[in-house]
Amino acid sequence: MKIWVDADACPVVIKDILFRAANRVQVELTLVANQMLRVPPSPWIKAIQVPSGFDVADARIVALASAGDIVVTADVPLAALVVEKGAMVIDPRGELLDKRNIQERLSMRNFMEGLRSSGVETGGPPSFSASDRQAFGNQLDRLLAKRPLS
User: Fold this and answer.
1) What is the pTM of this model?
2) Distance from CA of residue 20 to its chain's centroid?
């Protein structure tokens, strides 16, 4: 099991939770972004910088993620692609996306995108909260507890 992070828009508090978890359970954590990222010195943590461009980081994550891996992203189309490969997805608010619910989330995302492109004001997501941070940490701990020990 490896953890892949769509790091360009990932909140700093979520990255901090991931850094601590990677070191605690000794699982490989890779942040992928189109900008240079600072990561703490650790044999378990690394960052990959990809060229700028639409969905370049997403494409790299899709290429690298495998069945049983965890992908952290709020990008629903990216989540759908890695779930199809057998990976599990946690969004930064702690929601688990998997084969049971990804099509529903993708349909809702596409519906809302259609409304926005037709000029309807849909508003954005609520502010990131302490309960979101806690939900993420709890979900990550549940998935890491299920990992096969090597």
Assistant:
1) 0.86
2) 16
Can you say how many angstroms the Cα of residue 149 is from the centroid of all Cα atoms in its chain? 22
- Other CB atoms within a 10 A radius of the CB of residue 37 amount to 17
Query: What are the respective helix, strand and coil percentages of the chain, to the nearest 5?
Result: 45, 15, 40
Which are the contacts of 132, defined by CB distance < 8 A and separation ≥ 6?
A: 92, 93, 94
Q: Is the dihedral of CA 104, 108, 111, 113 positive or negative?
A: negative
Number of alpha helices (DSSP H) and beta strands (DSSP E) in the chain: 5, 6
| pLDDT tens, per residue, the chain with 150 residues | 999 999 988 999 999 999 999 999 999 999 999 999 999 999 999 999 999 988 899 999 999 999 999 999 999 999 999 999 999 999 999 999 998 887 777 767 666 677 667 777 766 667 889 999 999 999 999 999 987 665
Burial of 4 (0-12, 13-18, 19+ CB in 10 A): buried
Joined tokens for residue 79: 């989540």
Q: Tally the residues of the chain.
A: 150
CA atoms of 1 and 90, how far apart (whole Å): 14
